């Protein structure tokens, strides 16, 4: 569904992705894991079109990333990217008018599930609530491809549980594809179908998670430690 | 439900269903929750639940009837089979570990009887 | 799966207007207070003749603030990280910059218009309505209405051109991590210099072809050529800006 063929991306002197080859199947929840700076966020940004490859090709269902492919993508960057002066309802009205796949019933349901009120002003609520607001806007759509960049970073434990529940709650297995990048594996590994470990801009290890568990007799955290043990990783 | 991430989750889901049968919450012929429902209940990826259901179907623990749902097979000895299966797994681990402590098989049986008695006293 | 461009444009427009809420309020208050202050001064000792000058000054300041706002309306999307939201939307550069153009034009019409209106009212109040009658007579006597219209049209298109050059400079500036403000300023200045050169060449061309303006009016051919050129340059900058945004900008 998403194909990275020999993609290289550099920022000045830093190489974020180094002739990377990846094939992301449709309909699964996929983890792109690795330490900070391994190129995971860049990978996601390239799918949305926020970064362009220096060389190699990237295709989404056979097409280059474009205004058209963005119609069915829901992207959640790690940073606060909403207009902070807006209320949650204003932000929803804003997003809603760009996508046909907005689901108003889901929006209302998620509002109460995430304990948010439409009248809340984004710059006035706590960090955890802002993270939930971002998630609310993303998941109130029936997007075919959902990209979550570090969805749990800086979030307290209770909110993390809520976020994970939200991700799988209405997930359309086989239809929807969810890509999650994180360096915090513990909570996420339970919901991943497949995983790609990125190291130095390349894929160090990838596969079906359950199979990896069986083969290594270990959790993803332990497998990851193996993968990155030859270098200074920042866990 | 907390899963052990060092082992495949779909196998643990199957164990969960088996334990429900052994514990009496489910009996033969009972309908089990839909894949979606179970995924939400256990807070697990629906794809993983799907894998578990496929496997349970393959091992003839469950059967799916179109339009109606998934059911535990109508097999009379199912309960006994599962109990035996679980017991064997526990026994295997137990015997291997106790043997590694140095006891021989006769001593192991004596130990078991002794501690069965002790346990009986503690519980009453 | 596509939403009509028109409704996306109107959503962006509403967002852009509301983003500048604080500036708009400050400008409104500034204009009102400014005119009140000078009106107060004129009625307590200053010569009434100062009114047209002070009003013009306020108007110039308003224009300058709006011009600065043109740059900041783009810069601010980067500073607040909302550019991540905008760039991930299924909407292209043309719609985005069209919305920003409309926002700036709205400000010009509302605040520029308000400033002009208050200036005229103050002038009438302090210099008497005879001035107005004289002025109107003068204009119609020398058939200056046509000239006035031509002048206003040129001004309007000129403003649009400046806005697009400002957008272009901002977008090019955003391509650079360091010195982006300086680069924006430099590109803005250089572009205007180049455009000025083009107009000068055009003027020379006209003089060479003996199509002259009379002393008091702009000849129609020259006027049309000027308008046409300004439109072409504006459109070029508009498309350049959208293209750079669509193809080159990265986060």
How would you describe this structure to a colleague?
The complex is a heterotrimer of chains A (235), B (124) and C (251). Chain A has a single domain, classed as P-loop containing nucleotide triphosphate hydrolases (Rossmann fold, 3-Layer(aba) Sandwich). In chain A, helix 4 runs parallel beside helix 5. In chain A, 31% of the residues lie in helices and 26% in strands. Chain A has 235 residues and is of the alpha/beta class. Chain A is built from 8 helices and 9 strands. In chain A, the strands form 2 sheets. In chain A, strands 5-6-7-3-8-9 form a 6-stranded mixed sheet, sandwiched between helices. The longest helix of chain A is centred in the middle third of the chain and has 13 residues, at 127-139. With 124 residues, chain B is mainly alpha-helical. Chain B folds into 2 domains: 9-72, Arc Repressor Mutant, subunit A, CATH 1.10.10.10; 78-123. In chain B, strand 2 and strand 3 (69-72) form a beta hairpin. In chain B, helix 1 (9-23) crosses helix 3 (46-58) and helix 2 (35-42) packs across helix 3 (46-58). Chain B is elongated and about 55 Å long. The relative contact order of chain B is 0.12. Chain C has 251 residues and is mainly alpha-helical. Chain C folds into 2 domains: 1-141, no CATH class; 143-251. Helix content of chain C is 84%, strand content 0%. Chain C has helices at residues 5-19, 21-43, 50-79, 83-88, 93-127, 129-141, 144-174, 180-208, 220-247. In chain C, helix 2 (21-43) packs parallel to helix 5 and helix 3 packs parallel to helix 7. Chain C is globular. Chains in contact: A-B, A-C. Chain A binds chain C through residues 45, 48-52, 67-68, 70-73, 75, 77, 79-85, 93-94, 97-101, and chain C through 1-3, 7-8, 11, 15, 18-19, 21, 80-82, 84-85, 87-92, 246-247, 250-251.
Summary tags:
heterotrimer, A: 235 residues, alpha/beta, Rossmann fold, 6-stranded mixed beta sheet, 3-stranded antiparallel beta sheet, globular, B: 124 residues, mainly alpha, Arc Repressor Mutant, subunit A, 2 domains, 5 helices, elongated
